[in-house]
Design goal:
This protein has 472 residues and is an alpha+beta fold. 24% of the residues lie in helices and 25% in strands. It is built from 13 helices and 28 strands. Strands 6, 10, 11, 12, 13 and 18 form a six-stranded mixed sheet that branches. It has a five-stranded mixed sheet with strand order 1-23-24-25-26. Strands 2-28-22-21-27 form a five-stranded mixed sheet.
């Protein structure tokens, strides 16, 4: 039975991850912005531009026995009525590390006595006030920005409400050698897509973001249902090009497909504005081709995906397995470049392209703009402190060189420079147009994988990234 059916005071947040029902050139003058911490002399910068003061002091070593006992009482009573006296004592424990577990409770209890006592205990432990707004987001932003240590035994308590909400998450939490930073893991408001492969055309009975597997496609002429000015995510594998309309990707957020004779997985994190693609048929010996799915979990506002066959969880942004059998063999997915373009420009650049059919091949109707302006006001899930070199929601083209150097190019500025005939280059990476989108080449002319995302997402996963910006 699901957690939400058992605790009346549980406030469920709506699913924020989904909305269901060549020529000559001249070199421009550049500023190479080196890595910087997201701080000012006053403190850490949060996504809304506010400044956060210094972190509270935390002890080292094990928790004291009373705190352990109180945590056991609180998390063992989630289904029967939370022991609020034990919850209040946690606020008096003097161990600010416990604030992480209070934040986890606030994800699920957003009103009532448990909510009120958790907020009071958080304030007492951290010496800060919490007023207004989405409280769980506010407190979690602070903890991430402070990089506060988690308490010993953290995952053992954290997993309890998550596994009540969704028992199928147990393999993720149950890997004792996982390389997950559990402090950053949160719930996106939807459940896991673990439907069997023969049920991929059916809706999720409990409310997940359903992957679209092997969608029907048409030639470019057959894609006249999709407005020319609308965005597609284009990929080229071998000699085959394919376009994935943004409106369909906003509903499914994950496609498993065959392009150029290769199996690919295409996750789209709407929250971080990032469509990526990975080869899923290039796997270690003993493993079958992966089927990527959406878990319903988030890590600093980035979707968390997993492989349906092994239940190995992945860092979606980096393509690295972080739990399960694929983590055990140190597996990282091979990326493929994704180009964000308009449909008109993509099909002009790639006249032989195919495009996903209007109904996805499953008889479904898709609104042209299912998410609307949902992300217009910035991140809607906690991300902690931000890198002030670019605006949080600025679209950047991110590249990692063969030497491991991360480089980010502000998309609009790079496009203007290219249109002006300027060379857009940094750290041996050259940016050129592909349709209305951008791709990256090395200075020797060979290709290098790239994809777009919001700046906050690229910078948090690549904190030492170099940033290209034009002067003037």
């Amino acid at each position: 039975m699901r957690f939400r059916a058992l605790i009346p005071v549980l406030a469920l947040v709506a699913a924020a991850c989904s909305a269901d029902d060549g020529g000559s050139s001249t070199t421009s003058t550049l500023v190479v912005s080196e890595s910087t911490t997201a701080t000012t002399s006053a403190g850490l910068i949060l996504a809304d531009g506010s400044i956060l003061g210094p972190a509270p002091d935390v002890p080292r070593g094990p928790l004291n026995s009373q705190t352990v006992a109180d945590l056991d009482l609180v998390f063992s009573s989630l289904l029967t009525g939370v022991d609020t006296e034990a919850l209040a004592r946690l606020g008096q424990s003097g161990d600010a590390r416990v604030a992480w577990l209070l934040a986890d409770l606030l994800r699920f209890f957003q009103q009532g006595e448990v909510f009120e006592v958790s907020v009071e205990s958080f304030e007492e432990l951290t010496g800060t006030e919490v007023a207004g707004g989405f409280v769980w987001g506010v407190v979690t932003d602070r903890l991430i920005a402070w990089d506060l240590s988690e308490p010993p035994g953290y995952v053992g308590w954290k997993r309890v409400p998550f596994e009540i909400i969704e028992p199928s998450w147990e393999p993720f939490f149950g890997d004792p050698e996982s390389v997950v930073d559990w402090r950053h893991l949160s719930w996106g408001g939807v459940l896991i897509d673990d439907r069997p492969l023969d049920a991929v055309t059916s809706p999720c009975p409990q409310g997940c973001i359903p992957a679209l597997d092997d969608p029907a496609v048409t030639d470019a002429a057959g894609g006249d249902w999709y407005p020319d000015e609308r965005v597609v995510f284009g990929i080229v594998v071998g000699d085959e090009a394919r376009a994935y309309p943004k409106n369909i990707m906003e509903i499914h957020e994950m496609v498993n497909d065959t392009v150029g004779g290769r199996r690919i997985g295409l996750p789209y994190c709407t929250l971080c504005g990032s469509a990526q693609a990975y080869l899923t048929d290039s796997v270690p010996v003993g493993f079958e081709t992966l089927e990527l799915r959406t878990s319903g979990l988030l890590s600093r506002s980035n979707k968390v995906m997993f492989d349906l066959h092994t239940f190995s969880m992945f860092d979606t942004f980096l393509g690295t397995a972080v739990t399960g059998p694929l983590r055990e063999v140190g597996f990282t997915l091979e990326p493929v470049t994704v180009v964000t373009s308009t449909w008109a420009d993509w099909k002009a650049a790639h006249p032989d392209t195919t495009i996903v059919a209007e109904d996805g091949g499953i008889g479904r109707t898709y609104a042209l703009d299912p998410l609307g302006a949902r992300d217009a006001d910035g991140p809607i899930f906690p991300i902690g402190d931000v890198d002030p070199r670019l605006p949080v929601q600025e679209q950047v083209l991110g590249v990692e060189t063969p030497e491991g150097t991360a480089v980010a190019f502000a998309v609009d500025a790079a496009r203007r420079s290219i249109e002006a005939g300027e060379l857009v280059e940094l750290a041996g990476v050259v940016i050129v147009s592909d349709g209305a989108g951008l791709i990256a080449l090395l200075d020797n002319g060979s290709s290098v994988t790239s994809h777009q995302s919001f700046w906050f997402a690229w910078s948090q996963f690549h904190p030492d990234t170099l940033v290209w910006t034009p002067l003037g």
